[in-house]
Amino acid sequence: MFELIQKEMETVIRMWENMKYSTGDEISDDADRFQKEFYALFELVYSLVAELENPLQDVEEAQAHPEFKKIFEMLPDPLRIPFEMELDRILMGQERAVDCTEQG
Fold it and tell me: Does the model's pTM come out above 0.90?
């Protein structure tokens, strides 16, 4: 499962990098693609958290987990807070509120 998450994380980071150089009409499309991939990543994270033998209690515990640590190391700084917020939401058992601007 971690391999799938790492692969999806690479896609998210690549889209993040592409989005930084978007211009004109590309900006909105690239942002929509990034958002879609970012939340697809968290579908995998949710599945992984549900499969763990020893459930993680919080983000700090996740940061210390050997596999999650690798994921955190991949994160560019601007994505760290959104990642931590989504992970925290998952660990607290909360559902994600769908944003009305999300593209399906």
Answer: no
